[in-house]
Structure formats: structure tokens, C-alpha cells
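This is your field. Have a critical look at the following sequence-structure pair:

***
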Amino acid sequence: YLILSGKTDYTVETSTSPVGIIVRVENVFHGIHEKVGFLEQKLEEYHRSMEQAKADFAKPFEYEEELKEKMARQYEINARLDLDREKIEERTTEENLKPERDSMPKVAEYVGDYTGKVR
């Protein structure tokens, strides 16, 4: 490879033919001039975008009041959910400590004679 160096590096694949090397170097050289216009347009576009971003950054956040309201509402809902969770935890611990009649195991008794009739 042959490398053309300047502010940037450009590589050219070499060949066994001297004419082939010259043609490739010329193609890379002409390609540089063609890229200049394209790169200048990109640079101008980047500058415009940066100026627009600076202007947008300087503006106040337009949804700030709505955000504050929504955050307060979310805080309120989270607080209610935590209170409900504490009540549920208290109820389940009380149920575990005091067994109820319905939760006691039941024993099935079959009262009947050999004919299958239940008395």
C-alpha cells in the first residue's frame, strides 16, 4: 500500500505496473477534491445543528409545571400503595397468629350402614 499523508491519510493499493500506481494515485487525489465540497456542506450542517441545540438548551422546559404535577401525583399514589401494603402485612400476621374455625382442618366421617344409605 502507498499512503498519502496530509491532515488525513489516504491509502492506495499498489500494483506491479507503474502506470497502474500513477492512475490509482490520481484517482485518490481527484477524490479528495470531490470530497471537499461534501465535507464543507456537512460541516456547515453541523454548525447549524449546534447553534439550534444551544438555542434549545437556553429555553426553559415547557412541560415543567405538568411534570411537577405528575411527580406529586406519583408520590401520592406510591405513598398510598405503601400504606395498603402495611395494612395487608398486618392482617396476614394477625391471621397467622390466630387460627379461625374455618381454617381448621375438617375430618370427614361416614355415618351409614353397609347398604350405602346415609343416616
